[in-house]
Amino acid sequence: MLESFIGKSMYDLDTPSLIIDIGIAKKNIKMMADYFKDRPCQVRPHTKTHKLPYIAHLQIEAGAMGVTCARLSEAQIFMQHGIKDILLANQVVGKAKLQRLVGISQMGDITICLDSLGNAKEISEIAGQAEQKINVLVEVDVGLNRCGLEPGKAVLDFTKEILSLPNLNFRGLIGYEGSVSIDDDSEKLAKVK
Question: What angle do CA 180, 185, 186 make, to 5 degrees?
Answer without folding.
Answer: 115
